[in-house]
Fold:
Amino acid sequence: MTKKLKSADLLALGFMTFAFFLGAGNMIFPPMAGLNASSDLAPAILGFLLTAVGLPLLTIIAVALAGGGLDALAKVLPKRAALALCVVLYLILGPFFATPRTSLVAYELGFEPFVGGGWVSQALYSVLFFGVTFWLAIRPGKLLAVVGKVITPVLLVLLAAIAVMLVVAPLGEPVASAAAWQKAPFAKGFLEGYLTMDTLGALLFGLVVVNALKARGVEDRKLQFRYLCVAGVIAATGLALVYITLFQLGATAGAVVNNPKEGSEVLVPAIEALFGAAGLYVLAAVVTLACLTTAVGLTSSCAEYFSDTFKKISHVQVAAVVCAFSALVANVGLVQLINISVPVLFFVYPIAIALVALRLLAVVLGEHRRGQQQVVAVTALFALLDGVHATGLTMPKWLNHLPLFEEKMVWLVPTALVMLLMALFRRARDVRSEVMN
Structure:
């Protein structure tokens, strides 16, 4: 007989989901975006929330409907293409980009301000950080208790203190937005949300939450779906509040920062100005806890996928490899890692969005396999243009005539058109079937 969760356990499940999302990118990108979009804050926040909150929530729902993670959504593709896509996305969210970034942000914001820099201290920190990550990741049954009931409430209290101080003692008035943000604040905010990798993370975390539910004795699929949706709503609400707070922090920080190149150079002086020297300790605690919980979720998800897909390797072995490789990549440097990841994200993000849309709109679009594959193929083709464009390479001038090319969202219109055609063909088949009957 399946077990039902108590209200307190369901709330803890939501906190755990929220904690998985609230990691490295969530702390450093909103303050920088807020500073750049100071006088155009509302549309910038709206665009950012769409990709960093709305899409992850829809992705969790899609995962719940599909009854699995990324591999379940990717079944619409040919077998080899689905496997290749899953492996690539798990590597991006695992040892190549997202997981090493958690250690880098935790080091630069939570450790370096107190001891100074240097490759030796960074290397030692990354080894310690991923040692703890490995210990937690191979104990998935403890995730709900450790993350949901202990770490996240502390993290929320610390973030609430920042929000209160912004109201009581704001840093200053918003300054003029950067030129690119003045031109298209919504589109810039939408694309900035890519960098959090929240939608991609939702493809992984949904499966982690399902496994946590199973560990608690919840085997009924309908209950799992309901609990996963509730957890997603709790996580989305928490993320939205955090992002709005950090955007506002960045928008009012113009007087205390000097030509910052990344979010950490906005966050550190802003927090110090709000709380004094003690604020740096608050920031260190928030960032370290947030990054650690995200690293655990990503590592556990990667281990789950690769051990299930390639039967000859165990969960523990995969987790060890992910943590070891992440510790190595973490010594590349935060700015360099972000610069490398941007073109890749501009390519893979639209593909993930297309897969989620196909699942959520299945009632309207139908589930014709070839039609679904054509949607993904068109999305991938035009997303590749966005990815190449994001590298800074010179592009042919005729591409400027494509809708949303300058905004690096050229995939959106073709994908929408193919989905519309798919819906029309589905309706035509239904009408023909009704006439024949």
Q: What stands out?
A: The mean pLDDT is 84. The chain has one domain: 7-342.
